[in-house]
TrEMBL record:
UniProt keyword annotations, A-Z: Signal
SUPFAM superfamilies in alphabetical order: OMPA-like
Pfam families in alphabetical order: OMP_b-brl_2
UniProt xrefs under InterPro entries: Beta-barrel_OMP_2, OMP/PagP_B-barrel
Gene field: porT
Protein name (Swiss-Prot/TrEMBL): PorT protein
Signal peptide: 1-18
Length: 233
């Protein structure tokens, strides 16, 4: 996530520098002044993600370590104006990510490591609360609910961790919170944002053996993630 944060800061700095005359001057030229008066408009986004697991245990013991990687997001945006400062947003997208679980108390890597590759189709329905527009800048906060289909869940597999198959449920529900800034350029709106996504239910499919060393002591396993998206309208 450090690389993502540095990239975001560099991009925002570049955007601010290139648009400084139109956005940050004392008397800026107002770009796309009537754009947000539209009832409905569309866009697309590209971005990065970092997924983790929140793991609760039945009994105390050594924690399972989760190694995170940086994934990639792409999707579309439909934005419906409800009120001057409130919009309803639907942002379906495709999210790629990978997590590696490192189990303690195993002597071989074959048993200790489980790669969890995930391809998500993500369906968030969000409310966007915007502030007053200042020149060509408009900050906002966003929050709502989402549902996610994991195409790589292995949920239909009859094999389990004994055969090195780590299984999770296909569908999950989540809540999301975040913030962003709309930058109004001459021809389009550029909107970087950061958002947290938190699963609301247990996603783990237990092994066939109730005393499995991989799943037997897990009370619940829930995804959580950070999204950094760059939206263009």
């Amino acid at each position: 996530m450090k690389k993502i944060a540095v990239f975001t800061l560099l991009l925002l700095s570049f955007s601010g520098h290139t648009q400084s005359k139109g956005m940050f001057s004392k008397d800026p030229i107002i770009n796309l002044e009537n754009f947000q008066k539209q009832r409905l408009y569309f866009g697309y986004f590209l971005g990065f993600n970092s997924f983790d697991f929140k793991i609760d245990y039945k009994t105390a013991g050594p924690d399972i370590q989760v190694k995170k990687t940086t994934g990639f997001n792409v999707g579309v945006v439909a934005d419906l104006k409800l009120q001057e400062y409130i919009n309803l947003r639907f942002e379906p997208g495709l999210y790629y990510t990978k997590r590696t679980l490192n189990y303690p108390n195993f002597t071989t890597e074959k048993d200790a490591l489980r790669d969890v590759n995930s391809t998500y189709i993500h369906f968030p329905l969000l409310l966007k609360f915007s502030s007053l527009r200042t020149g060509n800048i408009r900050p906002y906060i966003v929050g709502g609910l989402s549902t996610t289909l994991n195409l790589s869940s292995n949920s239909k597999s009859i094999d389990d961790n004994v055969q090195q198959k780590f299984r999770v449920k296909s569908w999950s529900t989540n809540y999301e919170l975040g913030f962003g800034i709309d930058f109004f350029s001459e021809y389009f709106i550029f909107s970087p944002s950061i958002r947290g996504c938190f699963s609301l239910k247990d996603e783990l499919i237990r092994d066939n053996d109730p005393n499995s060393p991989w799943t037997g002591n897990i009370e619940s396993l829930q995804s959580r993630a950070v999204f950094i998206n760059f939206t263009f309208h």
